[in-house]
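input
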Amino acid sequence: MVTRRRLLGTGLAAAGVGLTGASFTPLLAVDRAKASPAKAAKAANPPLFAVPLPKMPVLRPTFRTATADHYDVTMRPARREILPGIQTDLLTFDGNFPGATIKARTGRPVIVRQRNKLAVPTSVHLHGASVTQANDGDPMDTLAPGGERLYTYPNKQSHASLWYHDHAHHVESENVYRGLHGSYLLTDSLEESLPLPKGEYDVVLAIRDAHFDAAGQLVYVMDDQERTTLLVNGAPYPYFQVAARKYRLRFANMSNQRFYSLRLADGSDIVQVGSDGGLLERPHTTSSFLLSPGERVDAVVDFSRYAVAEKVVLENTLIFAGTPEQVGQVMRFDVVRTAPDPSSVPEVLRTLPALPAPTNERTITMQMDEGVAHPKGYMDGKSYDPARVDSSIRFGASEIWTVTNTNTRVPHNFHMHLVQFRVLERAGKPPAPGEAGLKDTVIVAAGETVKLQATFDSYRGTYLYHCHMLDHSAMGMMATMKIS
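output
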């Protein structure tokens, strides 16, 4: 297993992001007395590669009209087997963990009726989507227990691997942790025209971590360093039976706080074809990639390099908050058959329009308290206040934002609602190929500065920008921008 010292010198460099060991030192001096009883009664990690990878269900429309697809979803408690032989209490969309995948198409709106049968308020946010303010899932625009509402997603943007999750302020971190998250795959004619793997060979891999007590129940403590059981599509350390051919794997980090540096154990090639906002312009061949909470990476892996009966492990080489035995192996691919493979990865995937001339520049700082019992998070020195507008933006403007993490030990990441942006610089250097496409979430390591450009020409209204380490945003590392 890769050691912490070695991985910080190689794995992260390969990912093109300059993080250091100090960047992942546990930061928050949260009241550990609150966590200690749960820690004492923690469940043992389940065995590796003992359960099959669950296939994510695809949500079927309740009905279709000439102009839109309509869905009905109920947020409700459910019990599901995650650890072998144990039923775990969850908060779910329709009883699924994670929520069922919604498949949508550019130019065809999706309308979702969400019913809240939980005991807590919710606010469903479609992460990465361009939507009106009323449909964005604002933290203060909540759906009370027993209520229902319609969310309308116009799908005017191009293809992208999006995801949806709860965003009700002060409870979003716990609600998402307990299960309120799922995938939303938006496609268009450009993506469909490419010979990338399709159908059963196009697979969502939703990765997250969890902390189970001795009774197999999820433990939630802010900034918990005991979330050391890794889940993929809701199953612990699963195996996935694959054919000896190419697969498109849509990796999504649905963890609250954990970063992953992912690689195949034999170091073989992974071809990244997309990021948050859809396909890259050109494929990027790498041996590993870094994924922070909320980020997505679409990659093609060619299993024809392996003989039938061979197995290869997907490793996480970023070891913090857990041991290599707990968090160093994510899942295993088992090659079980041959199959025809008409797919390929084109040299050019898409052409992104040139960035417009910027009309404004602004600076943003991200910070949270270090070494205190009850830390708070800050954007530009202020904790989130829903009554305050932090950034006023002219509709149609294209702005350069220079975002700095002023903490000395802990990383953050930066997520903007409404828009996909382009990364211009990281620590004064051009972005690595893997983050040169459209992004909605970007890593900002401790002490690092990232420069990005976004164009605000879709909808007017108030929207958020925040750290997508959800424990951090729940502590106040969130701000409001008004486009008018």
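quick obs: Residues 4-15 form the longest helix (12 residues).
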